[in-house]
Structures are given as C-alpha cells and as structure tokens.
Amino acid sequence: MTQKEIKKVSVSIEKLTGMIYSIRGQKIMLSTQLADLYGVEPRVLVQAVKRNIERFPKDFMFQLTSEEFTNLKSQIVTSSWGGMRRSTPYAFTEQGVAMLSSVLRSKRAVQVNIEIMRAFVKLRKMLTSHKELAHKLADLEKKYDEQFAIVFEAIQQLLEEDEKPKKKIGYIKERQAKYGNRSRKN
C-alpha cells in the first residue's frame, strides 16, 4: 500500500467517535461499520473472527441481542443497515478492535486500527474531562446552595414579618368615620 493510499484510508476521529456506542456498560463498535472501514464485507470480517475465535473472549467481542440491536437502530436513526439480516451484528470492544488488525492482516486494517485507537483515546479523554466538569459543577452547586439558603431564609423572615399586623401610622379611616360627618361652619 502506497503512502497516498494510506492517506485515503484515514478517517476523521469525529466520524469514528460517532461510531462508538455504549452497550452493556462498554464502549463498542459494530462489525458492520468496522467491515466498511476495513474495506471488506461484513461476512468476511465475521469469518476471519470465527477462524480465530480464541483471540476474541467475551470481553473483546459479543453478539448483540435482537432487543439491543432494535434499540440501537432507533437511537441512531440511519437510513441503511445493509438490508435484511439473518443475524444481529457483533460488537467489538476497544481490545477486540485492536485484535481485528492482527486477524485481518492487511495494511489498511492496521492503518484503520490506528485511527480507531486514537478515537477511543479521544473519547476517554472527553469522558474524563466531563467527569471533572461534573464534579466542579456539583461543588459549585453545594457552595451556592449554602449561600442561597441564607438568602432564602432572609426572604422567608421578611415574608413572615409581612404577615404580622402592623401598627397603623397616619390618618386612619376609623377616625375619618368618627369625625368626618361633622359639617364645617364658615
């Protein structure tokens, strides 16, 4: 494979991160999408995996259930899933994807795997930064909740004071009624 052909193989990390899904608490990529990236038919990819099944323990690869596949299709909203399927696709974890390049044994597979590994790393970094951001936000909420609690207490006290009858100051209507009926003499 020439350097020019390898450049054609490179796939944007953004596109790859969009192909990484979370199923059963793991980040995975589907066999159908991987086959497309590697430039092989899905059945060829699955055959290569089955010939080397000892390299793919359950934490590297598993087949989706019909329910998982249906849920995934409804979340992704894609126009084409390759027509009618006899079986559900396989899900490959990061380690399973890394193992695929050794099973497929092509330069394209190696190059695509490098890009996929970079996408997994980027996704991990994004998740880590989101967790840090979530912790900072929770700390801020606690801090401001305490400060706002004081403000809410003060508002509550003001509202309670408004409920108490206040001593009236100035001209009172009762007096007006008492003294207002007098006629003036000029």
What would the average pLDDT be, to the nearest integer? 76
Summing up helix and strand content along with how strands pair, one would put the structural category as: alpha+beta
Number of helices: 8
Q: Sketch the topology as an H/E string, one letter per element.
A: HHEEHHEHEHHH
Tell me the β content.
5-15%
Largest sheet: 4 strands, antiparallel
Radius of gyration over C-alpha positions, nearest whole angstrom: 34 Å
- Tell me the CATH topology of the domain at 3-124: Mlu1-box Binding Protein, DNA-binding Domain
What oligomerization state is this entry in?
single chain
**β-strand number:** 4
Widest beta sheet: strand line-up: 1-2-4-3
Shape: elongated
Low-confidence stretches at least 5 residues in length (pLDDT < 50)?
Answer: 1-7
* Helix content bin: 55-70%
- Architecture (CATH level 2) name of the domain at 3-124: Roll
Distance between the termini: 119 Å
CATH class of the domain at 3-124: Alpha Beta
